[in-house]
């Protein structure tokens, strides 16, 4: 790619960038959150959200209002915005958007397969699927019995297909294998996305690469944390780590050997970026969990992405920030999840 | 003139509303639209206000009404729109209304649901029949094998199962058939092939008529498909894939008899469903018709109710919680109306203690209210688009009524075009009560709202057109030209004299392409044309030069008068706001500067017009050079405008002007500094340095502004020139061509030519040119005129009035 995005970026993507920056301005502010905290019922939340950019998105909902209704409507709204961006995008931005949806698609596929394993009906699970990761072939996922089946029959024409190269196997899909499949898919997905951004170069690479590196490392940490006390062997564990992060290669090797949280922390201590994060984690009761700390860091990086112009990172950052906002609202709302009479 | 010259005096009033009567009082106020409420609970978030419950109830009602309107529209039942707007419902009726509406909604939802179910059923049956019909053609070739099948009777004869099976050679031959969305066919087939590894046979055909999708109600094209496969395992997969692509799968009949049977059964069921559906629809229609009668008044009532509660949310409770306190801005002239409205409200609710009000003094700037009528409204809008006037400031709209159409007309000066515009506007004005015009779409609406502006613009264009003597670019010879060509031929002079005076004879006429009339020869110029430009200029080749000089001088004169008037209006502002020092220190120097430079320029122009005649025109000095020399004091002697200008008898006057003009700049700057000191003494918190800076900037800006603004008024000349030239081009390119063809064919040609001429005249000259002249006239008012005195930093008075609620429910509900 040519360097110097400022010369040609606006020709193709200027409109969308302007739009996404406008959308970003509609994110809830500190004052909004203060008001949300004061809310006492879901109705209050609804009334308050009406005064924000969400508008009367809940106007047509019949009573009683539930958290899931709010959640679906919010997701729908995000999805509408995203679809608009995507439909108006040009290459290579549209590929970028496809990459963005891939993570949701992976989640949906895994969700559906888990559901099939637990003999739940497809319709029931479809409701839970993230609308951004929806695709037609999705519902046929439960036909497959092995990962290669899944690839050959269902996913070969979807954008997920290239990520399957590492995980073609004839293993039956039980719970562990599904989890392994998810992580492997994610690993190849992150690596591919990272490569795409790196090849694109310019400001996009400068912004997106750190975000994706962080994402990769976060996954590595989380995988390690979750694999403590499971039957996953250390070698297997290492194959799941995405290799595009800052931890690669020494950190990942060390992580693969870690046996408890303290050893993990010691690995993180070698890295200036992650040391403060692990220090912020409270121990046991109170304090933040590792997940919260990671979320905070992610949000911080996404907010900073808006400080530069002429790059695709803003779209990624906006979607992530909006998701975080939705998580916040749902978290806030679910605290008074009692049927309102 | 009072009310349009300045905005109305406002006062801040406090209303004490007894809590029992508050609703009725506000309802009475809303009908009258007298006051603007101030939000007393600004830092209370929206869901913590007092009347949130009531607002929520209104929203619930609105939701039901929106649903009703949507259903009524869907059933194509006309919604009657009442002429009158019903008052906000009394509180007692609200509950009743709510109950009634909720009951209606429940009933409606149920009936609609039933209807939808029936409809879906019907659609499915129709699809099924279509499928049977089409698949029959697929398996035609199998028909001859049918006897073979019968040897192996199906083991499980459950036709309700999605696919029917036949046992043959140890494996089951199964069929799945159904309908699939047109767009999905390809992907569907591919996936089938991949999953079943080619062990299936798919046949499909497009359905010739599009059908409605039972799920979404969309009318789309469908494909009928038939999949035949071996084995149960594959059957499951095929079923799943069908689910995935949202196919509508229907049981496939095994034999011809079965097919016939099913078909007959389907036909009777479809018939039955039709009758039931018809009945249901009839009933639904009845319900909706009944609802449609009252829905309009309900919508209006709920809107009013919601507005009242929003206003009540802005009030604060007093300590005893017995009455609400509202703070309102009210025009002083309407105070007794306000009192009466409050009494009315109290009386209506039957309260023992009446609500009352008192005015409270305030230091805050009140909102600006300028009452307009349908005539002045458009002009006020032009001014407001620049900025709503500060409270009690001189309102330029009053003067805009005349100056705006006039400046427009100077640029648009054409008798014919102006008359067409005038007629169009007159048509709008005469039909202004026509309902179609009131509800017309954007562009038409724009014209309609500006109809009085258009009317005046047309009238003034007729006038300036007469002055320019332009009618569709041609001149009209009404009074007979003041020039006589025959006088040039006059033979009363001796040949030598003739030669000297440049008179014409036959050889001159024959050999010269251009002939010149000389006004100094007696009899050639008999005096000015009575009104406007002499039509003989239409023939002259130097017409443009003549008109340019005339129009340029005219636009400078008009511009300077306009701007000087603006500065004088500034004096009115200073007088009103009691800032006398501003008159001496700002307005007077400004006037002095303006008049001494540009006023003097006008003087020179007029002087030259009056003093120099045809005989002396050759020695007349150029005004431009004179004007420049005034600044440069050139060493070389020039021919002055008037005798003694360069330093003899009348020198006093001129140099005095020059001195004063040079001085005025210094004086002004000096004065402004004095003024700063003035203010400093009056109010300690004024920052001297800051005011000094703004005043210095202001005076520099004013001096430079005067020059650039005067130049800016030259657009009057430029646009009028452009307009005249464009219409001239249109005439020569079209009508003249048509007129030149000989009589027999010319008639045939003239008709389309005239039609084209009319169309182009309307679109290019009237609309396009009109728009550009309009924009330039706006600019001259906003920038050149209003910056001399108008601050425009006020806020508009927005009364709480039900009339401002949109009375149409179709656009915001549907």
TrEMBL record, chain A:
The gene is ATP6V0D2. Belongs to the V-ATPase V0D/AC39 subunit family. V-ATPase is a heteromultimeric enzyme made up of two complexes: the ATP-hydrolytic V1 complex and the proton translocation V0 complex. Keywords: Hydrogen ion transport, Ion transport, Transport. This is V-type proton ATPase subunit. It holds the Pfam family vATP-synt_AC39. The keyword Iron does not apply. Subunit of the V0 complex of vacuolar(H+)-ATPase (V-ATPase), a multisubunit enzyme composed of a peripheral complex (V1) that hydrolyzes ATP and a membrane integral complex (V0) that translocates protons. V-ATPase is responsible for acidifying and maintaining the pH of intracellular compartments and in some cell types, is targeted to the plasma membrane, where it is responsible for acidifying the extracellular environment.
UniProtKB/TrEMBL annotation, chain B:
Keywords: Coiled coil, Hydrogen ion transport, Ion transport, Membrane, Transmembrane, Transmembrane helix, Transport. Essential component of the vacuolar proton pump (V-ATPase), a multimeric enzyme that catalyzes the translocation of protons across the membranes. Required for assembly and activity of the V-ATPase. It is found in: Membrane. It is a multi-pass membrane protein. The chain crosses the membrane at residues 406-430, 451-468, 554-572, 584-607, 619-636, 745-768. This is V-type proton ATPase subunit a. It holds the Pfam family V_ATPase_I. The keyword Coiled coil applies. Signal peptide: none annotated. It comes from Felis catus. Residues 94-128 form a coiled coil. Belongs to the V-ATPase 116 kDa subunit family.
């Amino acid at each position: 790619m040519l360097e110097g995005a400022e010369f040609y970026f606006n020709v193709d993507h200027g409109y969308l960038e302007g739009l996404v920056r406008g959308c970003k301005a509609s994110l809830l502010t500190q004052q909004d959150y203060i008001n949300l905290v004061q809310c006492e019922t879901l109705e209050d939340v609804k009334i308050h959200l009406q005064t924000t950019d969400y508008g009367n998105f809940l106007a047509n909902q019949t009573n009683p209002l539930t958290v899931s209704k709010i959640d679906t409507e919010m997701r729908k709204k995000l999805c509408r915005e995203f679809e608009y961006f995507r439909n108006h995008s040009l290459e290579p931005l549209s590929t970028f958007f496809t990459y963005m949806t891939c993570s949701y698609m992976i989640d949906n596929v895994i969700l559906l397969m888990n559901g099939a394993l637990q003999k739940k009906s497809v319709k029931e699970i479809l409701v839970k699927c993230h609308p951004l990761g929806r695709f037609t072939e999705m519902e046929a996922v439960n036909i497959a019995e092995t990962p290669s089946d899944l690839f050959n029959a269902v996913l070969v024409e979807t954008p997920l297909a290239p990520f399957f190269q590492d995980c073609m196997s004839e293993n039956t899909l039980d719970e562990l294998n599904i989890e392994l499949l998810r992580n492997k898919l994610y690993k190849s997905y992150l690596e591919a996305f990272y490569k795409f951004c790196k090849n694109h170069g310019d400001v996009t690479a400068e912004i997106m690469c750190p975000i994706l590196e962080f994402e990769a490392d976060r996954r590595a940490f989380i995988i390690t944390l979750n694999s403590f006390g499971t039957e996953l062997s250390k070698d297997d564990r290492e194959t799941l780590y995405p290799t595009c992060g800052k931890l690669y290669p020494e950190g990942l090797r060390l992580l693969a050997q870690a046996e408890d949280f303290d050893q993990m922390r010691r690995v993180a201590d070698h890295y200036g970026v992650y040391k403060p994060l692990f220090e912020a984690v409270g121990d046991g009761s109170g304090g933040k969990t590792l997940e919260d700390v990671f979320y905070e860091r992610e949000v911080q990086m996404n907010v900073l992405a808006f400080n530069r112009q002429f790059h695709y990172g803003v779209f990624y950052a906006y979607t992530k920030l909006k998701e975080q906002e939705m998580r916040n609202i749902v978290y806030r709302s679910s605290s008074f999840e009692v049927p309102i009479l | 003139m009072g009310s349009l010259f300045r905005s109305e005096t406002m006062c801040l009033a406090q209303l004490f509303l007894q809590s029992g009567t508050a609703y009725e009082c506000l309802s009475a106020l809303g009908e009258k639209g007298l006051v603007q409420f101030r939000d007393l609970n600004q830092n209370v978030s929206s869901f913590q206000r007092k009347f949130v419950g009531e607002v929520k109830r209104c929203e619930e009602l609105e939701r039901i009404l929106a649903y009703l309107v949507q259903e009524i529209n869907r059933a194509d039942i006309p919604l009657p729109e009442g002429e009158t707007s019903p008052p906000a419902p009394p509180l007692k009726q609200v509950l009743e209304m709510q109950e009634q509406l909720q009951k209606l909604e429940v009933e409606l939802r149920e009936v609609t649901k039933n209807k939808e179910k029936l409809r879906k059923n019907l659609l499915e049956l129709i699809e099924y029949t279509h499928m049977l019909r089409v698949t029959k053609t697929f398996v035609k070739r199998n028909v001859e094998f049918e006897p073979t099948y019968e040897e192996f009777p199906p083991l499980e004869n459950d036709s309700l199962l999605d696919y029917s099976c036949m046992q043959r050679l140890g494996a089951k031959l199964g069929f799945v058939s159904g309908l699939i969305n047109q767009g999905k066919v390809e992907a569907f087939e591919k996936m089938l092939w991949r999953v079943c590894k080619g062990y299936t046979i798919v046949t499909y055909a497009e359905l010739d008529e599009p059908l409605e999708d039972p799920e979404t109600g969309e009318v789309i094209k469908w494909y009928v498909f038939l999949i035949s496969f071996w084995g149960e395992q594959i059957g499951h997969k095929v079923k799943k894939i069908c689910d995935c692509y949202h196919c509508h799968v229907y049981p496939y009949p095994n034999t011809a008899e079965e097919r016939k049977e099913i078909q007959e059964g389907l036909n009777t069921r479809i018939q039955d469903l039709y009758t039931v559906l018809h009945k249901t629809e009839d009933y639904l229609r009845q319900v909706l018709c009944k609802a449609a009668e009252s829905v309009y008044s309900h919508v209006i009532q709920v809107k009013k109710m919601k507005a009242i509660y929003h206003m009540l949310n802005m009030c604060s409770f007093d300590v005893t919680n017995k009455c609400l306190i509202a703070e309102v801005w009210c025009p002083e002239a309407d105070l007794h109306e306000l009192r009466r409205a409050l009494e009315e409200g109290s009386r209506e609710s039957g309260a023992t203690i009446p609500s009352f009000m008192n005015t409270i003094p305030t230091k805050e700037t009140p909102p600006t209210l300028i009452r307009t009528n349908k005539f002045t409204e458009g002009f006020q809008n032009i001014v407001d688009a620049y900025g709503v006037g500060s409270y009690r400031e001189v309102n330029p709209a009053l003067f805009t009524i005349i100056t705006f159409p006039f400046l427009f007309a100077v640029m648009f000066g054409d008798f014919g075009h102006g008359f067409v515009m005038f007629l169009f506007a007159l048509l709008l004005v005469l039909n202004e009560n026509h309902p179609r015009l009131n509800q017309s779409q954007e562009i038409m609406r724009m014209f309609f709202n500006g109809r009085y502006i258009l009317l005046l613009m047309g009238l003034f264009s007729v006038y300036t057109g007469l002055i320019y003597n332009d009618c569709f670019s041609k001149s009209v010879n009404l009074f007979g030209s003041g020039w006589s060509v025959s006088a040039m031929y006059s033979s009363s002079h001796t040949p030598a004299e003739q030669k000297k005076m440049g008179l014409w004879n036959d050889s001159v006429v024959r050999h010269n392409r251009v002939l010149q009339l000389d006004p100094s020869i007696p009899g050639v110029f008999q005096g000015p044309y009575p009104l406007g430009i002499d039509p003989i200029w239409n023939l002259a080749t130097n017409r443009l030069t003549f008109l340019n000089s005339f129009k340029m001088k005219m636009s400078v004169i008009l511009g300077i008068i306009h701007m000087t008037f603006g500065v004088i209006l500034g004096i009115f502002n200073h007088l009103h706001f009691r800032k006398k020092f501003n008159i001496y220190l700002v307005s007077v120097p400004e006037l002095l500067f303006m008049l001494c430079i540009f006023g003097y320029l006008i003087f020179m122009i007029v002087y030259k017009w009056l003093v120099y005649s045809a005989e002396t025109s050759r020695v007349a000095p150029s005004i431009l050079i004179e004007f420049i020399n005034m600044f440069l004091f050139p060493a070389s002697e020039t021919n002055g405008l008037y005798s003694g200008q360069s330093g003899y008898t009348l020198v006093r006057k001129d140099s005095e002007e020059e001195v004063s003009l040079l001085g005025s700049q210094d004086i002004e700057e000096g004065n402004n500094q004095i003024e700063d000191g003035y203010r400093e003494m009056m109010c300690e918190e004024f920052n001297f340095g800051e005011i000094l800076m703004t005043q210095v900037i202001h005076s520099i800006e004013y001096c430079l502004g005067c020059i650039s603004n005067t130049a800016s008024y030259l657009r009057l000349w430029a646009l009028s020139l452009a307009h005249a030239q464009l219409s001239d081009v249109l005439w020569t390119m079209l009508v003249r061509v048509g007129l030149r063809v000989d009589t027999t064919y010319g008639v045939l040609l003239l008709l389309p030519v005239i039609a084209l001429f009319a169309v182009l005249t309307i679109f290019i000259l009237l609309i396009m040119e009109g728009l550009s002249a309009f924009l330039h006239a706006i600019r001259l008012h906003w920038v050149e005129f209003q910056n001399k005195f108008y601050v425009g930093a006020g806020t508009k008075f927005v009364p709480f009035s039900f009339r401002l609620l949109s009375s149409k429910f179709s656009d915001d509900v549907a």
